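Take a look at the protein record below with the fold in mind.
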Amino acid sequence: MASTSAPSVTGATGRIKTAAATLYSENQSLIAEIRKALIVMREIAVDLEKDNKSQMVRDLEDAAVELLEASEDCTHLSSVIQSLGNEYQPGPEPTNFKRLFKDNISKLKSSSSSVAQSDPLLRQFRAAIWNVHHAGQPMPGEEQEDIIMTSTQSNLLNNICPLTGKPVTELENPVRSLDCKHIYEKKGLMHYIGSNARAQCPVAGCPKMVEKDRVTCDPLLSVEIEEMRALSKQTVGRAVIEDFTEVYEETEES
């Protein structure tokens, strides 16, 4: 019996890991769809604001907050799925996975604060509405420095691929590490891993190792890169408005 138990445990662990990877991928797809929906809602809110339909804009903003909270819950679930897939080992008694998930999610929520109200997407949503009638002006409670800081925020850990030096938004085939969440150009990373027996993440200061089967282009990554592109365009557009305003003021003074 002892000779067959080890392969059985190994097989069970492998099946759990495979199932966790599938669930993680599906959950990441759901988060990506939520964020796509938020972008569409922002565009609709801007059109409504142009038509001075303030109540409908407020209703959309409330719905956006609810979606961000749902996205936060999905993010917690993804973290738990990934953790259990990597660390789970069968015990002598049957595992109650429903309770295990519930307990781990509760622990994760208790150790982290809600980020919906501070999410860059919500700030972008409100800024897009504000700019319909107040382009170039800080929103109430914000200074110009706040605009610069929040308008350049994104959910990506690194903006530049450490191997190619290219901006993440210009990578042909971006991939993300499942362990440290850093982003690289796939071709450069595969060459880097192949050239090193133990390949450490090339991002300065990151202690994690990178492996071929631990990097992926998950559905959420492509959405987040598109969000970063949109942020860059907004920042450039705001700079043009500010430059034009300064030129206009100088002309008025002269």
Q: What stands out?
A: The helical segments are 2-50, 54-87, 97-110, 120-134, 144-151, 186-194, 219-253. The two ends are 94 Å apart (CA to CA).
